[in-house]
Amino acid sequence: MNTELFNAKTQKENGTALAGRVIRSGGLVVFPTETVYGLGANGLDGEAVSRIFEAKGRPSDNPLILHIAKKSDVKPLWKHIPDKARLLMDAFWPGPLTLVYLKSPSVPNEVTAGLDTVAVRMPEHKTALALIRAAGVPIAAPSANLSGKPSPTCVRHVIEDMDGRVDIIIDGGDCSIGVESTVLSLVGEPTILRPGGITKEMLEGVIGSVRVANAVLNPLSENEQAASPGMKYRHYAPDCEVAVALGSPKAAAGIINREYQKAEAEGKSCKIFATQQTKNYYNGKKYVIIGDRDMPATLLAALFGALREESEGTDLILAEGIPESGEGLAYMNRLLRASGFKVIKY
Ligand code: AMP
Ligand code: MG
Fold this sequence. Notes:
Layout: E1 4-7, H1 12-24, E2 29-31, E3 38-42, H2 46-56, E4 65-67, H3 83-92, E5 97-102, H4 109-112, E6 117-121, H5 126-135, E7 139-141, H6 155-162, E8 168-171, E9 182-185, E10 191-194, H7 200-207, E11 211-212, E12 241-245, H8 249-265, E13 270-275, E14 287-291, H9 296-310, E15 316-320, H10 328-338, E16 343-344
Parallel strand pairs: 1-8, 2-8, 4-6, 5-9, 10-11, 12-15, 12-16, 13-14, 13-15
Antiparallel strand pairs: 2-3, 3-7, 4-7, 5-6, 9-10
Helix pairs in contact: 1-5, 9-10
Bound molecules: adenosine monophosphate (AMP) and magnesium ion.
Magnesium ion binds at residues 142-143, 151.
């Protein structure tokens, strides 16, 4: 397949109109959002949606998110709108929050992987909204990476994975949040299935107590697989081994220095994922500063790019764990999954 590349700034009008027509006629378009790049198709056309799974090599039992351009567009997709959803939509849409609720019959089974629920989000990114409007249908989209790889947060990483597999790629520059949306289920007790830029604390400020699915920080137990199909797959895996050091910044740095020396002695090449606050622990070693511990959003924004770029020519990435509050929960979720839950304690 010949993939066309458009720039969202310089080719705004033509690019969006054409991409909208491509979506409506069953094609695939990669588009920028504030979270990560999405791989979109007409969300009401089951056949078009199956092409997403082919392009990504995604297992067909992992459902997709429907992206809409205005709040009221959720109405035909859900059985009805629960009160808590209304409150959350008013507080966080447009934005990086996906809400899961009982689906209406108009949503094809290809989108939901046969579940009786559907995930819906209204993104904030102007190009994403313009594309959904131009298409005139909800756009089904997962992240625009090959299945298993870290999600793309810049167009270079999209091209690496998707060139030749989709009709159009829209270049919208870097994604500001850098990890996928928070996924919250509103079936039964509100439960975070996947943490993201909208934190547990922010959600609780609007609707009260929110659970975090066990699988967010732990390998998935069998009885959880049905509720959160995406979690059972190895995710965000870069091309090298990743290990996470837990504990205080000083303790984590101690573990990392020890493991670094051990690995180098075995002839492995290592890289350390450090923070502003800990870089001085690693003098003379190969490290990158991912961000600032006091602003975990900076760590989130840089993680996926760093996993892709720093894994090249590296055998082992040693990364510091951080506290799981605020955006720290999403950071630890992605990092632990990227490592295949390889945790080193003292
Ligand atoms: P991606 O953004 O590429 O990770 O793909 C969409 C994510 O949303 C996956 O992690 C899915 O498991 C999750 N998801 C989509 N629909 C549902 C649903 N109906 N119930 C639970 N999770 C869902
Ligand atoms: Mg994904």
